[in-house]
Amino acid sequence: MLSKIILGFSLIILVVLVCPAIAQAQPEPAQLAKAVQEIENLDAMRSGLADYLKDAPEPPTAETMKKVCKPVGMKAMQLSQENGWQVKQMAKKYRNPAHKPDNLAATNALSTFEQSPELMGFWEKETLSDQSGTRYYRRINVEASCLACHGLKDNRPQFVKNNYPQDLAYDFKVGDLRGVYAVFIPDSVQQSVQAALGE
Length: 199
What we know:
51% of the residues lie in helices and 17% in strands. It is α+β, with helices and mostly antiparallel strands and 199 residues long. It has helices at 2-18, 20-25, 29-54, 62-68, 70-83, 104-115, 147-150, 158-163, 187-196, and strands spanning 86-90, 121-128, 131-141, 177-186. Helix 1 (2-18) runs antiparallel to helix 3 (29-54). Residues 11-25 have low confidence and may be disordered. It is built from 9 helices and 4 strands.
């Protein structure tokens, strides 16, 4: 995890030094670094909770999912509320329709990750709901523990088949791209931070 954090900070420094014009369009480095760090923490939480499924003696149930998946969604909501961001999980092969890409840029971001398996994250200028800002995208890879619910279509738990008739999130293998975290930071949040710092 430390290497991912270092990578995130390195990307920020690279943009500021090599592409100053682009850097000026981005949130201040501290704001972006905070988003990178929070998403790394969120992914570590997701991975840790999913480990529970790896050696579970019984197939996952709806109750299991409340303990494993729901806390990640709740944490994303908390990050959104506390920071003025919009934090989402998105995927082309989604289970919950709320997780489908919300614009063309998000669809293109998922395609970029598909074409570049080594890419862990990037950010770009976007407009979302008539707000200009910057969006940070971070890869979510399939781990062995994910296959309890996202493996072969016929092996999905019965509650998934019952509750998600339009489910697309199956037939994954370890290492596949599961989806992304997307953190939208409105320019208005950036301006508020700068004002608070007296810039």
